[in-house]
């Protein structure tokens, strides 16, 4: 079991991930008012991850922080900066699955803000990454890798469903299912609920478009999925009580049962869930299901009218809000004993849906075409990146370093950039005593440690041999010294079997405006030798 950190200890990456997963699962099965405390704890985990966790742990924690905001407070001012940080972290640490999470979440927030074009582009970029071969990092167990791939695909499917591109969402869920282990009850539960939500959205949309038979098929499928979710629920991380019913906790499951057989027996449960749910799409579905369960259409009309009033002027869940208009006009016709087709509001809703249904196919076609465009762009970007990348460690090479330092030197005003040269102590002995192959393994381990110890927008480059350079923009000398001292300690703490006893000597200096990169590196290199002459395994400032 991962160690629980004490007050004087930094939590391990394993503990941060396990705790984050527990919190995220809990947040999805509690009322919205209880999510605020969970969000605060997730933000605390994020602060800890920023202080020294690996790039992957930081990216995972950023993802959880964004998912919790989507569930709890999607208008939070920090969303934009968190999305940017997740993107930068995923790219800096070459984590394509977290790039997918980033694009999927960016798309979900764009839909929330009625930026459909932005959401479409984000979804296409996520699908483009999945079109590439995604090989697990060395040493990653196949089951663990499959779990991570499935998680990214599940996130992406939600965005595709919210765009109304249900066929693409279903394809993505099918792909996710192929990566889920048969004994992973929690992820199978998540997949089942995601499929259920997709079928409900799709069924309501088909119903509005006049495809009654296809709509009924989706509602029947959603009921079957709801029963499967009930069977899996007790073994998932969602259930605090294994005897509890999923339909009492998850609005979509309760809706599926109610739409399959609308009657008064569902009313109490739906009313209870409606009081604690604030996510617009789920709230709309609960209200529609509730309206159909009352014998008196007037009660359903009143519920829908109240919700329409609440959403007046809102830009979110436009497709599902059309369901409210359609349902209101249908119930009004039942109440008045007239044909719904004679209701002008109903006719308007149908005409609007017919238009949107036609647009929907063009959106699917646009996304498919955009995926190929984005895939080719990524291939081109990969070729360009490889020209700037050290093949052994994956860090920037001398050319990449030169381009970054040139850009920093040309920045207007005082660039406030720290440049550090780092050299391994004792590395020659590793090569001479154990072989160059072992030396290469040490270099890769040190490179991973350096990359994980600095910020996402800092540059780490391999300058040659066992010498590295770190460029830290927008930071002061003391902040940079503290960051590099953490890095030195992290390398010294590498297990003997990995680091073979090597340590780091680091020399840092400040980039002077307009100064040639060679001169800055010369000064940093001279300072690094000061650290060497003082015994190594330390940072010197020049």
From TrEMBL:
One of its GO terms (biological process) is cell adhesion involved in single-species biofilm formation. Transmembrane segments: none annotated. GO terms for cellular component: plasma membrane. It comes from Allokutzneria albata. InterPro entries: Diguanylate_Cyclase, GGDEF_dom, Nucleotide_cyclase, Rev_trsase/Diguanyl_cyclase. Residues 415-542 form the GGDEF domain. SUPFAM superfamilies: Nucleotide cyclase. GO terms for molecular function: diguanylate cyclase activity. CDD domains: GGDEF (cd01949). This is Diguanylate cyclase (GGDEF) domain-containing protein.
């Amino acid at each position: 079991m991962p160690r629980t950190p004490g007050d004087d200890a930094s939590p391990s990456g394993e503990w941060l991930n396990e705790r984050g997963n527990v919190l995220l699962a809990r947040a999805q099965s509690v009322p919205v008012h209880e999510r605020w405390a969970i969000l605060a704890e997730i933000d605390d985990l994020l602060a800890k991850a920023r202080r020294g966790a690996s790039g992957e742990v930081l990216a995972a924690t950023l993802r959880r922080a964004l998912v919790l905001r989507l569930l709890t407070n999607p208008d939070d001012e920090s969303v934009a900066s968190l999305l940017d940080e997740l993107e930068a972290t995923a790219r800096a640490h070459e984590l394509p699955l977290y790039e997918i999470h980033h694009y999927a979440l960016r798309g979900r927030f764009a839909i929330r803000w009625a930026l459909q074009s932005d959401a479409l582009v984000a979804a296409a970029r996520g699908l483009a990454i999945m079109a590439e071969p995604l090989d697990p990092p060395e040493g990653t167990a196949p089951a663990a890798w499959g779990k991570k791939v499935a998680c990214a695909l599940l996130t992406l499917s939600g965005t595709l469903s919210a765009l109304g591109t249900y066929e693409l969402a279903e394809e993505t869920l099918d792909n996710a299912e192929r990566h889920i282990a048969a004994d992973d009850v929690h992820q199978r539960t998540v997949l089942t609920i995601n499929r259920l939500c997709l079928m409900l959205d799709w069924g309501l949309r088909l119903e509005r478009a006049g495809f009654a038979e296809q709509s009924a098929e989706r509602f029947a499928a959603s009921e079957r999925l709801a029963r499967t979710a009930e069977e899996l629920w007790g073994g998932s991380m969602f259930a605090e009580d294994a005897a509890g019913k999923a339909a009492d906790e998850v609005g979509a499951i309760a809706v599926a049962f109610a739409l399959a057989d609308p009657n008064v027996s569902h009313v109490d449960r739906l009313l209870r869930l409606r009081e604690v749910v604030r996510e617009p799409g789920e709230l709309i579905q609960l209200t529609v299901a509730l309206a159909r369960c009352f014998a008196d259409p007037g009660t359903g009309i009143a519920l829908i009218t109240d919700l329409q009033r609440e959403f007046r002027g809102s830009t979110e869940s436009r497709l599902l809000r059309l369901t409210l208009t359609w349902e209101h006009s249908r119930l009004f016709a039942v109440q008045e004993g007239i044909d719904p087709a004679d209701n002008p509001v109903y006719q308007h809703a149908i005409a609007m849906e017919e238009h949107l249904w036609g647009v929907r196919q063009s959106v699917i076609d646009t996304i498919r075409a955009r995926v190929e465009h984005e895939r080719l762009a990524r291939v081109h970007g990969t070729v360009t990146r490889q020209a700037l990348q050290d093949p052994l460690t994956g860090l920037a090479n001398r050319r990449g370093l030169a381009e970054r330092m040139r850009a920093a030197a040309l920045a207007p005003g005082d660039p406030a950039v720290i440049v550090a040269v780092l050299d391994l102590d004792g590395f020659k002995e590793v090569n001479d005593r154990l072989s160059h192959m072992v030396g290469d393994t040490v270099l890769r381990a040190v490179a991973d440690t350096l990359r994980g110890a600095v910020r996402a927008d800092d540059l780490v480059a391999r300058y040659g041999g066992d010498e590295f350079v770190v460029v830290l923009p927008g930071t002061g000398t003391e902040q940079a010294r503290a960051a590099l001292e953490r890095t030195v300690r992290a390398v010294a703490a590498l297990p003997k079997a990995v680091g073979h006893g090597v340590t780091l000597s680091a020399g840092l200096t400040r980039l002077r405006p307009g100064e040639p990169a060679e001169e800055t590196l010369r000064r940093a290199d001279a300072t690094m030798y000061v650290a060497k002459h003082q015994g190594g395994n330390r940072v010197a400032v020049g």
